[in-house]
Amino acid sequence: MNLGIQGKRAVVLASSRGLGRGIAMALAREGAHVLLCGRNGDRLAANCKEINQLGQGKADWVWADLGDTEFVPTMEKAIADKLGGVDILVNNSGGPTPGTTEDMSEDKLITYFHSMVLQIINLTNRLLPGMKEQGWGRILTVASSGVIEPIGGLALSNTLRPALAGWSKTLSTEVAGYGITSNLLLPGSIHTDRLDELDNAVAKRTGRSLEDIRRSSAKEIPAGRYGRVEEFAAVAAFLCSEPASYVTGSMVRCDGGAAHSL
């Protein structure tokens, strides 16, 4: 399928590794000009080098920290300098520390709300006028399957990610008439460094081996395994595509059938 995004300008947040990196690679393979951002310049530079050597799309990068008060101005300048505008915005952020509801201190709530919710909304609002003017845009927000089925031991994530669901749905109704879509993509157990960190935390807390944790987790997934980043990124690329122009206001799961809800 031709996704119709060759030459489109895409911004992928938190794309030095994991799901963000995978999405950036998938969009570039479709011919998009991708701006990667994150806190690890070496990884970002290596990702861009790999993309540019493939010769299908094009990539640039900028050091930008979602926790930094200057994140939005930094991104605005980089987008203007390196892309000249934006067609596709992929909102992605790292997850908060594991823990229970009692572990959710006021400082943690404020810190993670700022980086996981507020900064994403602020950047999107800054980029929307350009999308409206050109009559085309894709806003894809990566959240978590915890939005529809809270995950044990991830109280902070379960609290903050659903805020993005309400925002994304509301936004979709406001911008659909401009040719802009807004969707939420919910990963389940996709094998990334972040998932390894979570599995290690469970192993440490329970005294079980990492291999045992992984086997037990895989048994709970109807597909019988963890997902691959490439599989997840392919879904993201479609939701950012021209053929997906009538898909908006949706929450799309990529979890191997793990969620029990409808």
TrEMBL record:
<dbReference type="InterPro" id="IPR050259">
    <property type="entry name" value="SDR"/>
</dbReference>
<comment type="similarity">
    <text>Belongs to the short-chain dehydrogenases/reductases (SDR) family.</text>
</comment>
<dbReference type="InterPro" id="IPR036291">
    <property type="entry name" value="NAD(P)-bd_dom_sf"/>
</dbReference>
<dbReference type="Pfam" id="PF13561">
    <property type="entry name" value="adh_short_C2"/>
</dbReference>
<protein>
    <submittedName>
        <fullName>3-oxoacyl-ACP reductase</fullName>
    </submittedName>
</protein>
<dbReference type="InterPro" id="IPR002347">
    <property type="entry name" value="SDR_fam"/>
</dbReference>
